[in-house]
Write the structure tokens for this entry.
Amino acid sequence: MENFKSFGRKLTVPFFPGYTAITGPNGSGKSNIADAILFVLGPRSSKAMRAGRLTDLIFNGGKKRKNPANHCKVSLVFDNTHRKMPVDADEITLTKMIKRAPLKDNPENYYSYYYINGKASNYTGFSTMLQQARISGDGYNIVKQGDVTSIIEMGGVERRKLLDEIAGISTFDADVTKAEKEQEELDANLERIRIIVREINNQLHQLKNERDEAARYKELKQDLYEIKAKIAEKKKQEIQSQITEVTHQIENYEKEQNQLSNNANGLKEELKQKQVDLSAIEKEIAEVGGDEVKEIKEQIDKLREEEIKTIERNNYANEEIKEQNKEVQTYQQRISQIETELETLNKELEEQNMQINQKNELIETNDAILKEMKERLASSDDSTIELSKKLTILKGQYDDKNSKLHEEKLSLQRIADQLDAIENQIAELQETKETFSFEIKDINWQIDEYKKQDIMINKERKKIETELFETKKHESEITEQLQDLDRQIRKMQQEKAKLQAEFDAISSVQQRYNRAVNEILKARDSNQLKGIHGTIAELAQVEDRYKKAMGIAAGARMQSIIVDDDDAAAKAIRFLQQKKLGRATFLPLNKMISGKPRGKALMVVKDSSSIGFAIDLVSFPSEYRGAFWYVFGDTIIVDTIENARKLMGGVRLVDLDGSLIEASGAMRGGSAPKTNLMFGGADRRKLESLHMQIKQNISIQEQTEEDLRNIRRTLSTLEEKLTAFSVEDTSQPSLQQLNMQQKEYSLKLEKNIKQLDEKISEKEQIQIKFNEVEPRIKLLEEELETIQKEKQVKGNLLLKGSNKEEAQKSREISETLDELRTSLATLKSEQQGSKKKIEVLIERKNELDEHVQSINDAITNYKTEIETLIKQRANYQEKIQALSHVQDKMSNEIQSYTKKREAIQSSLTTIEHDLDKVNTRIESYYDLISRAQYRMPTLEGAVKDLDEELKLYGVTVDMQHLPSVESLKDSQRVVEESMNELEPVNMRALEEYTHQQQRKTKLDEDVKHLKNQRKNLIKLVNEITDKKTERFNIVFHEINKNFKEMYAKLSEGGEAELQIENPDDLFSSGLTIKARPRGKKVLLLSALSGGEKSIASLGLIFAIQQYDPSPFYVLDEVDMFLDGVNAELISRMIKQNSVDAQFIMVSLRKIALKEANHVYGVTMQDDGISDMIGNIDPDSVGPEGNIQTIMK
């Protein structure tokens, strides 16, 4: 508690299980502790806590009213170990606080605060939490000061309701009330639905005929859609067939073109090789022919160099023609797209023109009507005439301004379109500028590389020579490795043959496993079973002198099979079971455990006659230790049986002759057993390991041989490179050609930059115009709005003088005209927009046509240049041929070379001729592809339009059986005529009839459902009433029985009982208590003394507790009217019941204090603040509650 009533400080009061008593003089504040409990548990009325208002619960400052508090707070801590409250915590702390918050009009205003385990909550959260735990501040378990007899003095009906609460009758009552309310709502709903159904039936009768006509019309419309869809699909198929044909043509053309390009590339490579061969032959001719021949050779070389330049320029021109043809192809595709767009826009423009004409006609008609009406109104009096004139002037101003606004908006749109177009042109020019800049940088880089080439040639030659030396060295090393591998393989093959012979011999003579073990080993070797390691005999190695003793020590367990794990063992066992092959023992490594020798074994093994533990005399991999421990355990090998006898007893022994002495004392021995099993048999793993090594070495040998072949091929390549290193690579562009390209791109870039600057300047001028138009548009819009408002004012004044019908009609026509004019303005704006788009597209098409023409001119120039280059090259070839003839005559020694040269020159001529023909054919295919691709956008646009049309129809067309277009059009005409005969049709009748029919069906179902629901509710009310009566009777009889027993104990032989005033009307009657104190006759409750009433009241409280225990009870001076004997009886009863519930009792009676487990005293200090003393002695408490001594 904090600042609660007289407790002006923070105070913690612990309540332990059992019976706690609180005492103190009157006025000390002891009952304030009970009030604090009530404060948290829920009563909203301050009177329940003996206060005029809730703010009176806040500490007032004591006697001197010094430092009064502005809030009070109380926390109750509950033990929630059994989770009675729906919070997952062993302790729940409920805290309530009120705080003053005075207002001007309400100085006593306050706010309440609630906390659960320190977290903010509210009153509802508190109530829910307490209800879950069945705790209430208004329950019978809390008896306030002076209220001990209230349960007796309350009315009979109120007393019966106490039992109702215990029996949970309120829940039943709530269910009954809810059901009855639902029944009332059901009856109202049924009546309302019946009225609606009658109205719907009338509407359905009226709608049926209209529905039938609409259904027929809809059916015909659907047929019309299907016919139109089939026509569209038929056209689409024809166009798609054309697209497929064109696509196939393009693919064939491209395929042929690619094949020709590959042929051209092959011819170029062949031409290049022949040129290299020709240079080599001419070099040899020059070396053989002497100085004069060398001079001729130099002249030929110069001519050859010029010829190569013409070839390079020719190739460059041909490549440029190819690129230009591709660019033309791209432009033509865009032109085709623009033409398709223009066709669509022209259609839209025609539609807009038609709509504009219609709107103009409607405006003229309505305008004439309105004018006639206004003339009639104007002729009525002078004022209307004046208003009409003003309206006419305003209308003229409005139309004039609106026309100007429309023109300005069109102007703005045109300027915006110009801005978009010029921005696109600027973007294209900037992209082209970047391309030219990149090309120039690339050419400059190539020129630098070309200049560095001479330096790099020497470096490359030295690099190749070094690489050749290292490769030859590597060849020698690889050859030596091959020889070593061959020796190793032969040695391993010999060792394998020896091991195989040993394995075959041992396997056939010594190893004799039972059938199951043999089959498991076969399955392992054939990979039928995985995880099988082998037998104990197979996996161990033993010295020859110990083999006999170790064989006896292992016994039959030598055939045990070691496996990876228990899963492998289980699979092997199932294998034996399925094939009925017998039984075998398996030792899974993941489960086998290695043990330790016993104490006796450790002592015996130290004897001089002991050789050692058997497990230590066998060799095996360490991971098998668990398995071998299973076989040998702590068996010890000794030298002779005589020494074994000395050591026998509690340890397993085997001598070297094979005699066995068990730990139990049993002895086995005699002649050697006839068994062929022995350790260290065929070492299958070593044989398999050797086989794998041989296989691996052979694989390495093959790879090494392949490496050697690759090295020798590399040597051959390096030698060829070194031999042909001096031959010039004519495939690279010459320095002269690169300089020419650099100059060409520089000129292009300069021109591009100039165009870009011009376009940027043009854009700035257009932007200025755009900025000038926008304010004018805004000003015109404001002026139009002002004129419109003035028109409305004048029009309203004019209409006031006319009759209502004329005024209404005039308004409607004016509104219609406004809508028509607005719609017309929109259409005109769209019309201008379409015209502008057409203008822009035509302008763009013209630009593209100019680009195509410019490119075609460039192609023509390139072709002219190619003709010139061909002539130049022919001239060079003639001179070269003449010099070659001179060179041939100068020496007989070079005739063989000249023949070769002539043959090469002839091949060169043939290849060049073939290359020219291929290039010509490639160029022709470019033209064919371009023309085919030019058709594609138009065809694809038509298919797209047909797809859009098919979407509008929304029908699925049978693609397999489509009639001809003529037949479909005949069907279309018949359907349209049938539809015209039915018109006009109310199509909404279909939807309305279906909607009303669905409503009727739904309402019929609702009626049926509501009737069933009503029937069920009546049945439910009866069932609840029966259960309520049954439940009350159970509770009544149990509590009555308990009350009789409790009253007899408390009154020492008295009698009492509970009675229902009217059993036939159980829940309207009251509950009566009849009591007969000991030695007296039956008395009415009003005739009982205060003490007798307290006894009866407490007897009923204890009776209820016995039936429906509360977790705790708070009793405030319930013994104040009792004599000493009865007070003692009550105290003992409380002590007895406190075993099952927590009791907190405020009392001045010593007997009550003596029976309590814990006693607290409350005193009032001089400053008017209550204080608490814990654990006081009951004998120290005076008759008025004065505490004489403080501590026990």
About this structure: The chain has 22 helices and 24 strands. The CA atoms of residues 307 and 877 lie 8 Å apart.
